[in-house]
């Protein structure tokens, strides 16, 4: 576990404190900073992780009915620094067994160095292509979260109906799927709308989404929304 000097944590509320930069296998620049007392993982074009200030999932989880839905197992495709398990553990006291899949080994290194070691939930990380992992995995999960980006774009294979069909196979019949999409521009919003109608709704007829500041989190069923 990394020990951050108290003065640097306090100063981060005034000025971003750069901690480390590495060159990833997919991202030429990965930056870890301390911002407002939180760990932030970013590339030159996007924020990948930001503890409980990772607005996309902070907002989505606030609208999720965790009174009735308490996942025991979770699959995370696209790890970042581990904002998703961090939010679920610190905000909702949820500690499912996590399987985390991340293609970039440097991202896993940073996640384990800065955040995962502070959590008590069991987290098993795999450095693997999520498309291949999903196709060969035989486990079933209560919660599946897809947060796969290269910079600010979702790679095309993860937008195909075949990939979503594989996800269905891994999702418990009472399980929840959350799929993060960019929706900052009009073009991105139109693209998400088309994806919902042409790909997702034929597979999940009651699917919906939660709008965040710059993204839409697609949900397989409206039953999970408060």
Q: Could you describe the 3D structure shown?
A:
This protein is α/β, with parallel strands linked by helices and 226 residues long. It has a single domain, classed as Vaccinia Virus protein VP39 (Rossmann fold, 3-Layer(aba) Sandwich). 31% of the residues lie in helices and 28% in strands. The protein is built from seven helices and eleven strands. The strands form two sheets. Strands 7-6-5-8-9-11-10 form a seven-stranded mixed beta sheet. A four-stranded antiparallel beta sheet has the order 1-2-3-4. Strand 8, helix 6 and strand 9 form a beta-alpha-beta unit. It is globular. It starts with 5 loop residues before the first helix and ends in a 7-residue tail after the last strand. The model has no long low-confidence stretch (mean pLDDT 91).
- Regarding quaternary structure, what we see is single chain
| Spatial order of the strands forming the largest sheet | 7-6-5-8-9-11-10
Mean pLDDT: 91
Count of runs of 4 or more consecutive helical residues:
7
N- and C-termini, Cα separation? 36 Å
CATH class: Alpha Beta
Instruction: Report helical residue fraction.
Output: 25-40%
Number of domains: 1
Structural topology:
Elements: H1 6-11, E1 17-22, E2 30-35, E3 38-42, E4 47-49, H2 55-62, E5 73-77, H3 83-92, E6 97-102, H4 105-114, E7 123-127, H5 130-136, E8 141-146, H6 161-170, E9 171-182, H7 186-203, E10 208-211, E11 215-219
Parallel strand pairs: 5-6, 5-8, 6-7, 8-9
Antiparallel strand pairs: 1-2, 2-3, 3-4, 9-11, 10-11
């Amino acid at each position: 576990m990394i020990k951050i000097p108290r003065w640097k944590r306090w100063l981060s509320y005034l000025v971003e404190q750069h901690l480390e930069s590495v060159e990833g296998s997919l991202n030429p620049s990965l930056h870890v900073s301390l911002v407002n007392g939180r760990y932030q993982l970013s590339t030159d074009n996007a924020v990948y992780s930001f503890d409980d200030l990772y607005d996309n999932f902070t907002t989505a989880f606030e609208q999720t009915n965790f009174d009735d839905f308490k996942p025991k197992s979770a699959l995370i495709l696209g790890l970042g620094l581990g904002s998703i398990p961090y939010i679920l553990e610190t905000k909702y006291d949820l500690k499912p067994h996590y399987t985390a899949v991340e293609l970039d080994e440097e991202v896993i290194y940073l996640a384990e160095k800065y955040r995962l070691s502070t959590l008590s939930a069991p987290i098993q990380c795999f450095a693997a292509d999520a498309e291949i992992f999903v196709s060969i995995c035989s486990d079933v999960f209560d919660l599946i979260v897809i947060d796969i980006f290269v910079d600010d774009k979702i790679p095309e294979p993860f937008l195909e109906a075949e990939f979503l069909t594989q996800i269905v196979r891994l999702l418990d019949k009472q399980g929840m799927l959350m799929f993060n999409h960019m929706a900052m521009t009009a073009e991105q919003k139109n693209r998400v709308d088309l994806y919902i109608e042409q790909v997702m709704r034929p597979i999940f007829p009651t699917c919906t989404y939660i709008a965040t500041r710059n993204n839409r989190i697609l949900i397989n069923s409206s039953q999970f929304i408060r």
